[in-house]
Specification:
A hairpin with a 2-residue loop joins strand 3 and strand 4. By secondary structure, the protein is α+β, with helices and mostly antiparallel strands. It has one domain: Gyrase A, domain 2. Helix 1 packs antiparallel against helix 2. Helices cover about 40% and strands about 25% of the residues. It comes from Vulcanisaeta moutnovskia (strain 768-28).
Amino acid sequence: MKSIPEGWKLEDNYLTREIEFKTFMDCIGFINELAQIAEAEEHHPDMIITWKHLTLRLTTHDEGGITQLDIEMAKKINELINKWKEK
C-alpha cells in the first residue's frame, strides 16, 4: 500500500479525516459533492456530521481493511477539500 494521503490518519482498519467548515450548510454542500464522487467511484466513506464538523472514514469492508481503493478515494476527497478551501 502506498503512503497515507496528507491530512488522513490510520485508526484501526480505517483511514480517517476530520474537516471543520464555516457553517453547517457548507458541511452539507461538501457532503453533497462528495456523494457524487463516491457514487461515481462506487466507494462510499462513512460520514459523521456534528454541526459544522465532518468526520470521514474509509475502509474496504469486503477486504477487511484499507486497500489501494481507499488511498485513491482519500486523494479524491483531498482534491474536493482543496476546492472548498478556495471558496
